[in-house]
Design a protein that fits this description.
Blueprint: E1 4-11, E2 16-21, E3 30-37, E4 43-49, E5 55-56, E6 64-69, E7 74-79, E8 88-96, E9 104-107, E10 110-117, H1 125-135
Parallel strand pairs: 1-10
Antiparallel strand pairs: 2-7, 3-4, 3-8, 4-5, 6-7, 8-9, 8-10
Protein name: Immunoglobulin V-set domain-containing protein
Organism: Xenoophorus captivus
Domain Immunoglobulin V-set: 15-94
Length: 136
């Protein structure tokens, strides 16, 4: 992965915008998009087919809003009512059809590392920095 990593801090109850963008490659048009947690609790947050509503993981039900369409190479995902347990690294994977072969997953150009603070001050900033060091 050679894109950028966004490091985002939020308090519990707030929301976060996770950008999913893919560099257009020739005539490849994505037909779907996965958003996954990929570090602390690897799991699928949702899958969205072009023009359809996303199918959302139970733990994110009613907290995920998707705007944009995978076929346009850009989707914005908002996760609301954040919980401390949502802290993780989030990656987008665009699904692209390969004729005569297995569909290809192309990772989005940005990863989002989300740190949700439970709102109990004082929060140690050095902790978040050490957390960031461990994922590099």
């Amino acid at each position: 992965f050679c894109g950028e990593v966004l490091f985002v801090e939020r308090l519990e109850g707030q929301s976060v915008l996770v950008p999913c963008h893919m560099e257009p490659k020739g005539s490849l048009r994505p037909f779907g998009l996965y958003l996954r947690r990929s570090w602390l609790r690897p799991t699928e947050v949702f899958f969205k087919y072009t023009q359809n509503d996303p199918s959302v993981n139970e733990s994110f039900r009613d907290r995920v809003t998707v705007s944009g369409d995978p076929s346009d190479h850009a989707v914005n995902v908002t996760i609301s009512q954040l919980r401390a347990a949502d802290t993780d690294r989030y990656i987008c994977e665009f699904m692209v059809e390969r004729v005569g072969s297995v569909d290809e997953k192309i990772q989005g150009s940005t990863e989002t590392f989300l740190h949700v603070i439970d709102g109990e001050p004082p929060f140690s900033h050095s902790m978040s920095l050490s957390l960031l060091q461990t994922i590099r």
